[in-house]
Specification:
InterPro entries: Glyas_Bleomycin-R_OHBP_Dase, Glyas_Fos-R_dOase_dom, VOC_core. Pfam families: Glyoxalase. It comes from Saccharomonospora amisosensis. GO terms for molecular function: dioxygenase activity; lyase activity. With about 130 residues, the chain is of the alpha/beta class. It has one domain: 2,3-Dihydroxybiphenyl 1,2-Dioxygenase, domain 1 (Roll). The chain is built from 2 helices and 8 strands. The protein has a 4-stranded mixed sheet with strand order 1-4-3-2, with helices on one face. A 4-stranded mixed sheet has the order 5-8-7-6, covered by helices on one side. Strand 6 and strand 7 form a beta hairpin. The relative contact order is 0.21.
Length: about 130
């Protein structure tokens, strides 16, 4: 039986630039960083998270340039969306949607990474 989601991929144009964005602006941890023969494998994750995000380029076997700068279908959760929004905004993260309480009872916001990949953040209603 499957126990959990191990990793998800996000396509980026420059892995080094993406690594700086995810660690410096979002505060993620580096979980894996391997280089060799013109190939680099990077996995990052929020502190304590089980699932990692692999920062892939169009040169990966299943990648293509058109996957960079897209809606990712990835949603994060936070305990305090307003504090997260203020912190990330001060760090230069671009938001496409400011925090707003949704009719279904969760707070919602959306932001872009350095390549324009879009992510959602939810906070359960308090």
């Amino acid at each position: 039986m499957i126990s959990h989601i191990s990793q998800i991929g996000v396509y980026v144009s420059d892995q080094d630039e993406a690594l700086r964005f995810y660690t410096e602006k979002l505060g993620f941890e580096v979980r894996e960083l391997q280089e060799g023969s013109g190939f680099k494998w990077i996995e990052v994750a929020p502190p304590g998270a089980q699932t990692t995000i692999s920062l892939a380029t169009k040169d990966f076997p299943v990648g293509e340039k058109s996957k960079v700068g897209r809606y990712t279908d990835i949603a994060f959760e936070t305990e305090d969306i307003q504090a997260m929004y203020e912190t990330y905004r001060e760090r230069g993260v671009r938001f496409t949607k400011e925090p707003e309480l949704q009719p279904y009872g969760k707070w919602f916001a959306a932001f872009l990474d350095q390549d324009g990949n879009e992510f959602f953040v939810f906070q359960p209603e308090r």
